[in-house]
Design a protein that fits this description.
The complex is a heterotrimer of chains A (278), B (292) and C (413). Chain A has helices at 3-36, 55-62, 64-97, 103-115, 119-132, 138-161, 167-174, 179-208, 211-215, 225-229, 242-276. With 278 residues, chain A is mainly alpha-helical. The radius of gyration of chain A is 23 Å and the shape is flat. In chain C, helix 9 (213-228) packs across helix 18. The chains are: A mainly alpha (278), B mainly alpha (292), C alpha/beta (413). Chains in contact: A-B, A-C, B-C.
Chain lengths: 278, 292, 413
């Protein structure tokens, strides 16, 4: 390949990259723009605001329900992430390292569980949670989030774990470590990147969920941000508070953007490691 | 205790918490839904509850609304998944090749994947709206995208594609890393064109990644709910099967009929998974296989 | 409320005999009022006014529901069907009365309590009644008016035919903003057209389809003619109340059929437009019949599973009292259900269209009062959408069949 065609190719790739970046970020820019428009300009159809104001953000943060929802979202999503990854790691370890009857069944059943339409789960779960006292509590949301992400987490980690050089574990045990010690000292550091990627997947799921959050909470005690947005009202019953919704959307999107910007490398590494071995 | 028995015991011990959580949170509601689907049961008329066998299933499968929803769902699924596959390849290739700004590119692509679905759908709804939106102004169009069936589907598919192509691209990127660069160089030396190299060398090696990506996205797309709910609410004949289930279960409180819809959707999804498995191999079953 | 207390509460709610005391052993019982998240704070003010008036017998605490009416109902119904003891008071959309009453989710008012709900406009009382009993205290009401641009329209049109003619004559600015999306608003539009042409959706028993061919086809014909004319906005088949408002405030329309919230909103967001904004009664369909639009609004009912029904009835009557209605009108521009308040200067200052609204409300009609209302509404939306595809005789037949199926609770909708 001549240097010239190579340069040409690089130019194409760079132009393509620029296009893709615009593609990915345009809607985000649009919500930011909406959130900055004063109420009277919401209908002007301009991509960029003619005048900008932080009124919507002030209004959103002045709402005590919204601040509580941010705390709930963070708490619920973090707890669900920690639990799901811990449980999935244990299961994935067993699936990769041990031969036991029912292994295939377990994997298929886990995936089948994740395929059920969530709409159908809401009703029974609502009744069950009220009987056991989990309705409108953090655990009441953590449990379904954890469960719905377990299959994906188990699957990602199983694939990841299979790439770990397990001989090292054996070597450690020959050196006198117990199975548990060998696991924690040798394997966990190797498995960390995969677990991190799984954690991000779980966190994004929990952070984004709308249906469970709306149905299984009723007060500031557990309501999360996507659900609280449904409670926003305009100046009257019929007005759609597009500006406030946009501002809240920006606030709820910001942590995700920070998360992916900081951990971009690890997420990609984790995701790709989990996906390749078929 | 033999080593095998010890292994088995340890394995189940390790799996027990995950299994217990899944049983509690999903297996019970699923079993309950299957049970309810055999009854005439409307929450508004609890005293009329009666066992009706498979009558709810007959009612759903004999309904025009259901088959319309199946067609709608297939339109969205096929259109969005195929577009995502093509775009996903392009994006993956860019990520693979980009020398400058690789990090920015990946970060930007992760944003649609991470953004709240409801928020993204709302952003598109407002963008395509003829009064508040910028799309019509930009394209100098007059008219409402979401008011016509064809254009409404276009917006739904567009929103779905925007949101999920990055996921597809990342899975495919993993596939690219499977292809040793020597191999394609060798093919090129042997006189193959780029296109030939891609289809004869790269693609076959990437097959596992492609199958996984297709499977995951198809299963998701078939249950599409948030995007349709926010954009059209099922109007203009765009209701997906999940929207139909929602209307029966949540709006009408007809738990019998709604559960039957849910169970049929579930059966469809399992069927699709089995079909993909039969056609392209079973990646998820293989995930548990031991490779020594 | 602290998280721990709320967990304890929900456990107590589930196990009333498990030794849980009331959450405020020393204080008065707390009555929870589930109602939509009213933005002006008028409902919260009513709750504290009634807590003060109860002099320690109870306090009313507000539990806000989502902004969207369908989501309000979904959340409430899930609780009520599960026998939630926390629901003491329910802020009910007028279309829920029959459903909630028939399912046994709310309690009927006794004669003594009903006697305290006085001075209401007859249709608002009717909206809170079912099966010959009163099930809620009418609090705020609402109905659509015809809003128009006085700078372009010298005389408001009396009939739909007039309105469409004037609109067409105005050309580009002649748009009539109305709601044709597939949701409750389309049902409102159709039922108003139907009742204004002398037809009815259900018969007197509220159990069978009425839909006499002549008025039904007349109503459908008007709707179809409007939807296919240049007078309909481009987004008509996707427009909800707020889309209409935004379009009118942007100045592109000369007419709008909408609720009264558009008045304060225009004052605030589009003073230029508001200066020329005038109102009239909804246009007639037949020149010889008054227009009859459907009633909206919120009634206060008493949850059937609450712990303190007697106190809740007292609170419901108080929340919907004349004082609180005046406050709701003043703070949130919510139209009162008590007829005499339309002469109250404080109310008239907020609602300058009070006379036209009172006239409209006196003639207002109910959306079909049936426990299966949400099914019926889904059936109507499904059969009539998109409005421009309506072919009167064919659509009438389809509508009759769909509503019939809905009333028998059959099949998918």
């Amino acid at each position: 390949m001549s240097a010239r065609t190579r340069r040409f190719e690089q130019a194409c790739v760079s132009a393509g990259s620029a296009l893709v970046i615009v593609y990915a970020l345009a809607p985000v820019a649009w919500i930011v723009s909406l959130s900055l428009k004063p109420a009277a300009d919401l209908g002007d159809g301009r991509l960029l605001p003619a005048r900008a104001t932080l009124d919507q953000y002030r209004a959103v943060f002045a709402d005590p329900g919204f601040a509580a929802a941010l705390v709930n979202s963070l708490g619920v999503a973090s707890l669900a992430t920690a639990l799901s990854v811990a449980l999935a790691a244990a299961a994935a370890y067993a699936l990769v390292r041990l031969t036991f009857p029912g292994r295939q069944l377990l994997l298929s059943a886990a995936l089948a569980v994740a395929m059920f339409p969530p709409v159908a789960i809401i009703g029974p779960l609502f009744d069950l949670w009220r009987v056991v006292g989990l309705y409108d509590t953090w655990p009441g949301l953590v449990l379904p989030y954890m469960t719905f992400t377990l299959p994906l987490a188990i699957w990602t980690l199983t694939a990841f774990f299979r790439q770990i050089p397990w001989e090292l574990e054996k070597a450690a045990r020959v050196d006198g470590a117990t199975r548990l010690q060998a696991f924690y000292r040798v394997i966990v550091p190797l498995a960390a990147p995969g677990m991190f990627a799984a954690a991000v997947l779980v966190f994004i799921f929990a952070w984004n969920d709308f249906l469970f959050a709306l149905s299984l909470t009723s007060t500031d005690a557990a309501r999360t941000v996507p659900a609280v947005i449904a409670f926003f009202t305009g100046s009257s019953q019929f007005e759609r508070p597009a500006g406030a919704i946009a501002a809240a959307s920006v606030v709820v999107t910001a942590p995700i953007v920070v998360l992916v910007a900081v951990f971009e490398k690890r997420i990609v590494a984790g995701l790709t490691a989990g996906a390749v071995k078929g | 205790m033999s080593a095998a028995a010890r292994d088995t015991r340890l394995a189940w011990l390790l799996c027990a918490p995950a299994v217990a959580a899944m049983l509690l949170v999903t297996a019970y509601p699923i079993a309950y839904a299957v049970w309810l689907s055999l009854f005439r049961y409307d929450l508004r008329f609890p005293e009329q509850r009666a066992f009706v066998g498979l009558a709810n299933y007959a009612s759903v499968l004999g309904s025009e609304v259901w088959w319309q929803a199946v067609v709608n769902t297939l339109i969205v699924t096929v259109a969005s998944v195929s577009l995502e596959l093509v775009l996903g390849f392009a994006f993956a290739l860019l990520m693979h090749r980009a020398l400058f700004g690789r990090r920015v590119l990946r970060t930007a692509l992760l944003v649609p994947y991470g953004i709240v679905t409801v928020v993204a759908a709302l952003a598109w709804r407002l963008a395509f709206d003829p009064t508040t939106g910028f799309v019509n102004r930009l394209l100098e169009l007059d008219g409402d995208w979401l008011a016509e069936r064809g254009t409404a589907f276009a917006v739904i598919v567009f929103a779905e594609v925007w949101k999920t192509t990055p996921f597809m691209a990342l899975l495919l990127l993993a596939g690219f890393t499977l292809v040793p660069p020597e191999l394609s160089s060798a093919a090129r030396v042997d006189g193959a064109t780029r296109v030939q190299t891609f289809f004869r060398v790269t693609l076959p090696l990437m097959r596992p990644a492609v199958v996984v990506a297709l499977l995951f996205r198809t299963l998701d797309a078939f249950r599409v709910f948030d995007t349709v709910f926010v954009l059209t609410g099922g109007a203009q004949d765009t209701a997906s099967v999940s929207i139909v289930a929602y209307r029966a279960l949540i709006t009408r409180l007809n738990l019998g009929l709604g559960s039957a819809v849910a169970v049929i959707v579930f059966a469809c999804v399992v069927g699709i998974a089995a079909l993909v498995g039969a056609l392209f191999g079973v990646p998820y079953a293989a995930a548990g296989a031991r490779r020594r | 409320m602290s998280r721990i207390a709320s967990i304890a509460l929900s456990i107590c709610g589930a196990l009333p005999l498990a030794g849980c005391g009331p959450e405020r052993p020393a204080g008065a019982p707390v009555l929870r009022w589930y109602v939509f998240n009213e933005p002006s704070g008028a409902f919260a003010a009513a709750a504290s006014a009634c807590s003060a008036a109860a002099k320690g017998a109870y306090t009313v605490s507000l539990v806000p529901l989502p902004a969207d009416a369908d989501q309000q109902r979904e959340q409430l119904v899930r609780r009520l069907a599960a026998g939630d003891r926390d629901v003491d008071l329910v802020g009910m959309d007028v279309i829920w009365t029959a459903e909630f009453a028939a399912a046994g989710w709310i309690l009927p008012f006794g004669d003594a309590e009903a006697a305290r709900v006085e001075g209401r406009l007859a249709p608002t009382l009717e909206s809170a009644s079912w099966d010959g009993r009163l099930w809620a205290a009418p609090f705020t009401t609402n109905a659509q008016l015809l809003w128009y641009r006085a700078d372009r329209v010298p005389e408001p049109p009396a009939t739909w035919d007039d309105m469409l003619r004037q609109a067409m004559a105005l050309g580009r600015d002649g748009t009539v903003e109305a709601q044709g999306a597939r949701y409750e608003g389309l049902t409102v539009l159709f039922v108003s057209l139907l009742r204004s042409s002398g037809g009815r959706l259900l018969d007197d028993s509220n159990r069978e389809v009425s839909l006499a061919p002549a008025p039904t086809e007349r109503a459908l014909e008007v709707l179809a003619r409007f939807a296919t004319s240049g007078a309909a906005p481009a987004n008509f088949s996707n427009a909800r109340e707020d889309d209409s408002r935004l379009a009118f405030e942007a100045g592109h329309a000369s007419f709008m059929l909408n609720y009264t919230f558009v008045w304060p909103s225009a004052q605030r967001n589009a003073p230029e437009v508001a200066r020329h904004m005038a109102w009239a009664r909804w246009p007639r369909v037949s020149a010889d019949l008054p227009s009859r639009v459907t009633l909206g609004g919120i009634n206060v009912g008493v949850g059937a599973h609450g712990r303190h029904p007697a106190l809740a009835f007292d609170a419901a009557v108080c929340l919907a009292s004349a004082d609180n209605q005046r406050m709701a009108a003043r703070m949130g521009a919510l139209p009162p259900t008590i007829e005499s308040l339309y002469d109250d200067p404080a109310v008239r200052a907020q609602l300058p269209f009070a006379d036209a609204l009172r006239d409209t409300l006196r003639d207002a009609v109910q959306r079909p009062q049936t426990p299966l209302y949400s099914d019926v509404s889904l059936a109507i939306d499904g059969a009539l959408h998109p409005p421009r595809a309506i072919d009167p005789p064919v659509t009438a037949a389809r509508l009759r069949a769909a509503v019939g199926r809905a009333l028998r609770s059959e099949g998918l909708l």
